[in-house]
Amino acid sequence: MNDVWVEKYRPKKLDEVVGQEGVIERLKSYVGSRNMPHLMFAGPAGTGKTTSAIALVKEMFGEDWKLNFHELNASDERGIDVVRKNIKDFARTAPIADTPFKVIFLDEADALTSDAQAALRRTMEKYTNTCRFILSCNYSSKIIDPIQSRCAVFRFRPLNEDDVKKYLGRIIKEEKLKVTDDGMDALIYVAEGDLRKATNILQVSASLGGEIDQEVVYKTSATGKPAQVKEMLEVALGGEFMPARNLLDTLLINYGLSGEDIIRQVHRTAFDIDIDELLRVRLLEKIGETEFRLIEGSNVRIQIEALLAYMAMVGQQGRR
User: Fold this and answer.
1) Which residues contact 152 (CB under 8 A, 6 or more apart)?
2) pLDDT value at position 310?
3) CA distances from 205 to 127, 212, 214, 268 (A)
4) Beta carbons of 306 and 290 less than 8 angstroms apart
5) Could you report the per-residue pLDDT of 146-204, keeping only the tens digit for each?
6) Averaged pLDDT, 290-302
7) What span, in angstroms and rounded, lies between the C-alpha atoms of 12 and 93?
8) By Cβ atoms counted within 10 A, which residue in 102, 174, 213, 317 is the most buried?
9) How do strand 131-137 and strand 102-107 relate by DSSP bridges?
10) 42 and 142 in contact (C-beta within 8 Å)?
11) What does the alpha-carbon distance between residue 308 and residue 245 come to, in Å, rounded to a whole number?
12) Across all residues in the chain, what is the average pLDDT?
């Protein structure tokens, strides 16, 4: 198992990209015409943005694609200098071989500073005859409007359960793995529509050897079992603080979860428990407040125990 499965099983063609049928159909029209505008791929991580960009250029340029493709990660070099030097130097030179233009793929473009984006805007405009840009970002709102207006925007959505299951099924078959039904359900739950995350967790689980079930998946992914998180909330809302606190200890110690991990799972589980809608609203408001405090650097245990204490107080008031 020396291969990294994310790369080993990365789709090589646009038709192999799963879960983004509408986007792929539009991209294939560019391949047929061998022409395209500047593009912006926006959406959550692990949904196929980078894969689609590389597959598009491969199909458009054939064997010469590497000579006319330049990939940069804006989170590594996010200042104005990288735009003025690296990007500009590549964009201003003529394409190599029988290709109409070069392509610069700028990953995590939303990490660029405002000055860098302003410089990029001018570069995109000036060298459009020799170069096209593909910008990839998680949050399109962080890209300035002048750049957005110069791009055709493609929005990638999180993959649904069937798409994740289909993709993982291909890897499981190729690698001859044994995955139980509850193990597959756990992989889909943990992935949350992120195919890269699902593939990495599957590989880590497989490295332990033996059958892959939900217990293996949750432990290797540092994720608490949904049933345990649900039990913790139900116990707290039942007015019993100390038993809920003990269940919290299990999640923090046995699964090694961070405070943010627990809060995210608490948020997901808040929609699965059977409680009054008004109480759910109050609970979600408190969860949001706790998450903000954790991000600001507050003590994890104190904040989450305070959340459980609030639930217990609300539960005791409801029983009076």
Assistant:
1) 36, 37, 38, 39, 40
2) 92
3) 47, 6, 10, 24
4) yes
5) 999 999 999 999 888 999 999 999 999 999 999 999 999 999 998 888 999 999 999 99
6) 90
7) 27
8) 102
9) parallel
10) no
11) 7
12) 87
Q: Secondary structure of the chain in the HEC alphabet?
A: CCCCHHHHCCCCCHHHCCCCHHHHHHHHHHHHHCCCCEEEEECCCCCCHHHHHHHHHHHHHHHHHHHHEEEEECCCCCCHHHHHHHHHHHHHCCCCCCCCCEEEEEECHHHCCHHHHHHHHHHHHHCCCCEEEEEEECCHHHCCHHHHCCEEEEECCCCCHHHHHHHHHHHHHHHCCCECHHHHHHHHHHHCCCHHHHHHHHHHHHHCCCCECHHHHHHHCCCCCHHHHHHHHHHHHCCCHHHHHHHHHHHHHHCCCCHHHHHHHHHHHCCCCCCCHHHHHHHHHHHHHHHHHHHCCCCHHHHHHHHHHHHHHHHHHHHC
Predicted confidence at residue 130, as pLDDT, reads 87
157, 18 in Cβ contact below 8 A?
no
Q: How far apart are CA 289 and CA 6, in angstroms?
A: 36
CA distance 199 to 246: 32
Full set of structural domains in the chain with CATH? 5-155 (3.40.50.300), 161-220 (1.10.8.60), 226-319 (1.20.272.10)
Q: How far apart are CA 81 and CA 72, in angstroms?
A: 13
Share of the chain above pLDDT 70, in %: 95
End-to-end alpha-carbon separation of the chain, Å? 59
- The pLDDT of 130-157, averaged and rounded, is 91
pLDDT the model gives residue 77: 62
